[in-house]
Amino acid sequence: MRASSPPVIDGDLSEPCWQTAAKADGFTDEFHGTVPADLTEAWLCYDATNLYVAFHAYDTHPGQIVARETKEERPLSGEDTVTFTLDPFHTHQPTDQSSFTVNAAGAHTAEIGTGRGLKTEWKGAWQSAAKITTNGWTAEMAIPWAMLNYPRSKTQVVMGLNFSRAQQRTKVRSIWSYLESHRRLELAGHWKDVEPPTTFKPQFSFLPSGLVQAGQSSRATAGLDVRAALTPTLTGVFTANPDFSTVERAVEGIEFSYGERFVPDRRPFFLEGERFYSERVWIGSCFHSPRVPDFDTGLKLYGKASPKTSAGMLNAYDADGRNDFILRGRQELTQTDSMDVSLIGRDSSAAHNRVLVAKPELRHGGLTLVTHWAQSAANQRLAGDALNLDVNYRSKHFGLGEVYHLCQTRLSRRPGLHTLHRLRRTSRLRALRE
Known about the structure:
By secondary structure, this protein is mainly β.
C-alpha cells in the first residue's frame, strides 16, 4: 500500500497510514516452528521517498523488556529488537538482502546488501523510534529508497521481505515467513506490485582526510575518498592517497603467531562493497584487502547488470608500478543455485601473480553442495591449487556433513613436481541450536 501521508516517526502507531498499510501477523518461533506466547504484528507502506515499517511487539511482562543501547549503528545483540529484511531483486541470496533492526529504546543498526555503507558516513540516514507500552512495545522506521539497491523498472516488481523479532526475556526469536531452522531464504515472503522510484539522481559523497605531524620530522599529507551512487544498481568508489595508518587502519595487538593474522581493514575504499568482494571459505581468504599496501589511487565499481547477475572490478595503483586488482562476477542460476567467479591479481616489476577462483553452490531441499576451487600462477607458472568440497544435509534441528580439503603448492621450477601436497577430510555432526 502507498502511504497517503508519511507517518511521524515517534513510535506511536495511531496515525492513519497504519490503518490502511499491509499487515503481517502470525509470527512463528524460528526453532520450534510453533506460535510464540507473545505475538507480534508488523505493517508496511511506502511512497516515492521512503519505506515505512511499524511493529507492535506484545509482551505480558513489559517491565522486563531489555533496551540498554541508545547509540546508533551499534550491536544490538542481547536486547529486545525487531528487524525488517528486504530483498529488492527477489534473488533469495544473502548478499542482496538488507536488514534494519531497532531495539525497544529506538536505537537502530542496518546492514545494506553487498556491503554498501559499511563506512557509517556513507550509509545514509534513516529514522527509527520506539515506545514501551502497557502491553509490550512499538517501533517505527522510515527507510529512504536512496539507501538501497533496487531494480529500475517502469512496471510493478516483486521483492522479497521478512519481519522478525528477538525477545530477550524468553530467548525466543520469531519470524513472520518461517524459513525453517536452517534459514532457507527462498521461503521468505513476497512483496507484490511494488512501484520503485522511476527517477534517480546520482549521489556523490566526499570524505577528505588529512594528517599533520609536528616535531623533528614535520610532514603533512592529505587524501580524498569519493563514493558515487551512479544508478540504483551501480556504485563507484574513487580514492587518492588513502592510507593514514594512524587514522584508518585497525590497531593490531601484540601476539605471536605462526600464520598470517587477518586484521580488519578500516580504509573506506575497501569497506564499501566489502561483502561483494570478500571470499571467506574453508581454504582461506582468497582476497584480503589489508594485503594491499599503501597505494596512490584506486577505483572500484560494482552492481547489478540484471536482477540475477552481479559484476564488479577493483583496482589499486601505485606510482612505483605495482597494480592490485580483482574482477568478480556472480550469476544466480535458480532460487537456490549460484555461480561465483573471481580473478585476483598483483602486477609489479618483480612478479605477476594471478588467482582464479570459482564457487558453484547447489542446493536441493536440505542437501547442499558447495565447491570452492582456486588456481594460482606466478610469472606464468602454476603456483598452487586449492579445492574445498562441502556436502551436507540439514534436517529441522540437526545437520550432517562431509568436508574435503585439497591443497597443493608447486614450489619447484620443474613442471609437475609438487613439493607440498596435503589432503584433509573432515566429518562433522552439528546441532543448529545450542
